[in-house]
Amino acid sequence: MDKNIIKARSYFYEFLAYPMFFYTNNEKFARWKEQLRYLSANPLSEDSDAAFKNLDKFGFEEFSKEQNDVLFGFTNIPLSASFYEEGRDNGAARLRVIECLKLSPYRRDSELCKDSEDYVGFIFLAMATFLKDEFDDAKNISNKLFSETLNLFVDEFSQLLLAHKEANFFKSYTIILKDFIDLERSILNVEAPAKPKGDSVAMAALKKEPFQSKMPTFKTKLHWEEFSPVISHEFKD
Question: Which InterPro entries would you find in this protein's record (predicted)?
Answer without folding.
Answer: DMSO/NO3_reduct_chaperone (IPR020945), TorD-like_sf (IPR036411)
